[in-house]
Design brief:
It is a single chain. This protein is an alpha+beta fold. The protein has 6 helices and 19 strands. The longest helix is centred in the N-terminal third of the chain and has 20 residues, at 113-132.
């Protein structure tokens, strides 16, 4: 196992390009930096199986960005034949807009191609450094539950509160990496915030690294529908209620999750040295009218396809009193997969999957206002 972290914080200030914050509404111009953002990579090798996971403090990336990161890694590591790279984002709501949806207005992109290219290269650099730092390792895996910081903001109330932690240590017992997986939006900081931050994962990783050493990584889980720490009352260890939307609350949430994860890992036993990864590309029908319009306007830089081929044709859509350019392709291309590390299995799914689709719980008849009014019972 090997691990590394590379900083990806964009510069903020009048002398630099504007940084639009992603996750809530448009027009949130970054005013300052609270903490650095990172691309954090973990490489695992078992026999002839080699997997790299890179987690970034960002709202998200497109499939083309993932493919670019893989190309950079392949060029930099010709000796790492068969190394498979997985890219994940924490989905933080106080980081730069890397998708385009949160610029100054709804029809102007907030994605800076120059910054995104730096992110691609930094992610690849983290994987390369992790690969070159790898050494003999023992892996332990534990799972517990952590629900007290999560609220489901949409009906039906279904929460996946499982907290999974994977620790990789070298032969002398020193930590190489600690991976924490939990399902909750990194949005303790509210829509009014304009300070760039990784939110609670900043404190989570800080506590993990200070306690165990090595490199910490956070990956998110089933957060759709909508798992959030907003409006969840949170008290510190002295019983003092933290102010809503504050960095103090983010610290209590992050450190609390880290503490729970580390307690579970402390009693975990080593798992067999087993790795397995299966992925497949999937064409997803593009039915979202807003997506089509924003792609036509260049707000969302996403390639569309028809019958498996790139389709660059456009049409127009009347939106109120305007005719707007609209992409005509039928599908978008993405990827799904399954990753096994010892006895643990991770589903690799783009976007915000709903807990009710992962663990069940869609009622019938559906709750009033539910996002899936016609969903079948699992």
């Amino acid at each position: 196992a090997g691990a590394a972290a590379v900083r990806i914080t964009p510069p903020v200030g009048s002398a630099y390009p504007k940084v639009w914050l992603a996750g809530y509404g448009t027009g949130r111009l970054a005013s300052a930096i609270h903490d650095d953002l990172y691309a954090r990579a973990l490489v695992l090798e078992a026999g002839d199986r080699r997997v790299a996971l890179v987690a970034l403090d960002l709202i998200g990336l497109f499939y083309a960005d993932t493919l670019a990161i893989r190309r950079y890694v392949a060029r930099a590591l010709p000796e790492a034949a068969g190394l498979k790279v997985i890219v994940a984002c924490t989905h933080v709501h106080a980081g730069p807009d890397t998708l385009g949806l949160w610029g100054p207005t709804q029809t102007v992109t907030g994605r800076d191609p120059g910054y995104v290219e730096k992110v691609r290269r930094a992610a690849a650099e983290a994987v390369v450094k992790a690969w070159k730092s790898r050494r003999a390792a023992t892996v332990r895996i534990a799972q517990t539950r952590c629900r007290e910081y999560i609220r489901d903001a949409r009906l039906p109330e279904v929460i996946d509160d499982r907290l999974t932690v994977i620790g990789a240590d070298d032969t002398r017992g020193r930590a190489i990496a600690t991976l924490v997986g939990w399902a909750n939006h990194p949005e303790v900081l509210p829509p009014q915030n304009t300070i760039l931050t990784a939110d609670y994962p900043h404190y989570l990783i800080g506590r993990v690294e200070a306690t165990r050493g090595g490199v910490g990584l956070f990956v998110n889980g089933a957060i759709g529908g909508l798992m959030t720490p907003l409006k969840v009352p949170v008290k510190n260890g002295d019983g003092v209620l933290m102010a809503e939307g504050s960095f103090e609350k983010a610290a209590v949430v992050g450190e609390g999750v880290a503490r729970r994860a580390l307690e579970a890992l402390a009693t975990a036993r080593p798992v067999p040295a087993r790795l397995a990864l299966a992925t497949t590309q999937v064409f997803v029908p593009l039915t979202n009218r807003g997506f089509r319009i924003l792609s036509g306007l260049g707000v969302i830089p996403r390639t569309v396809y028809t019958d498996g081929r790139v389709d660059t044709s456009t049409t127009t859509t009347r939106y109120w009193w305007k005719k707007l350019p609209t992409v005509a392709g039928r599908d978008v291309l993405t990827e799904v997969g399954l990753l096994d590390i010892g006895p643990a299995r991770a589903a690799l799914i783009p976007g915000e999957i709903y807990p009710e689709l992962v663990i069940g719980g869609i009622p019938m008849p559906p709750a009033h206002g539910a996002d899936f009014p016609n969903a079948p019972i699992e």
